Amino acid sequence: MSVYWPSLIGGMLLGLSAVALLLLDGRIAGISGIVGRLLGGAQVPLNAAFVIGLISGPPLYMLAFGSFPSVTIATSWPLVLVAGLAVGIGTRMGSGCTSGHGILGLARFSRRSFAATATFLLAGGAMATLMEFLR
Amino acid sequence: MKPLAPLRIVVALLAGALFGFGLSLSGMLDPARVLGFLNLASGHWDPSLAFVLGGAVLVAVPGVMLQRRLRRPLLDDSFHLPEKTEIDGRLLAGSALFGAGWGLAGFCPGPAVSALSMGLVPVLLFVAAMVMGMILHDRVIAGMLPR
What we know:
The complex is a heterodimer. Chain A is about 75% helix and about 0% strand. Chain A is an all-alpha fold. Chain B has six helices and no strands. At the A-B interface, helix 1, helix 2, helix 3, helix 4 and helix 5 of A face helix 1, helix 2, helix 3, helix 4 and helix 5 of B.
C-alpha cells in the first residue's frame, strides 16, 4: 500500500490544480483542450501560461527530490508516431482526455465524460493487453 | 485587456506547474507505469493509475460542489463550462481512438507535454505527432464528419 502514496498524493495535486483553475478562472483544466486552443490561436497568453507551467513540472520535481521522475519508453518510434497521431485526433474529436473527462468530467457527474472515460479506459486496456501478446 | 488579465495568466501558470508537479510525483509521467495499469496480461498489474485518478476526483468533487454555489469565478465574469449532454458518435469514436493511442505508447496529452522538459527524443516525436493530429482534426477532419 505504502508504494501508492506518491500516486495518491500526486493525483490529489492534479485535483487541486483543476479546482484552482475552476474557482479562480472558471475554466476546465483539460490538457487536450488547452493545447488544442493554443494551436488554434485562442486565448494564447492564458493557454501558453498553463502549458509553460505544465512543462516546468519535471524541473520542479528535480528541485524537490534531486532527480527527474522516471520515464521509460519501450515502444518503437514508428508506433510512438502512430500513437501520438491517434491521441491528437482522438482527444480533439472526443472533446477531451484523461484530465478534462477523467478528472473534472467525472467530478461534475457529466454523462458525456462518464461515457468518454469508460470508452478510453476500455480501448486503452484492450490495446495495451493486445500489444503484450504481439511482442 | 481587462484589469484582471495579468492575474489570470499567473493563475494559469501556477495551476499548470501544480499539474506538472503532480503528474511527476504520481508516476504517471512514465509510460511504463501507465501501461502497467492498462496491460492486464503482464502478470504484475500496477494499480497506480487508479490511485492517481481516484485522488484527483476525490479533491475535484468538493471543488465542483463549491463552484455550483458560486455565481462567477473569482477572476472572470462567468464560468466557461461544457454544456453538451448528448453522447454522440464523435465523443465515442474520438475517445476510442484516443484510448487506442494511449494503450499503444502509454502517453496521454498531459504527461507527454509535461515530459518535454526532460529532452527525450521519443517524447518529442510523440508530442509532434499529437500536435499534427490535433491540427489535422480541427482544420480538416472535423469539417468532414456528420454533425
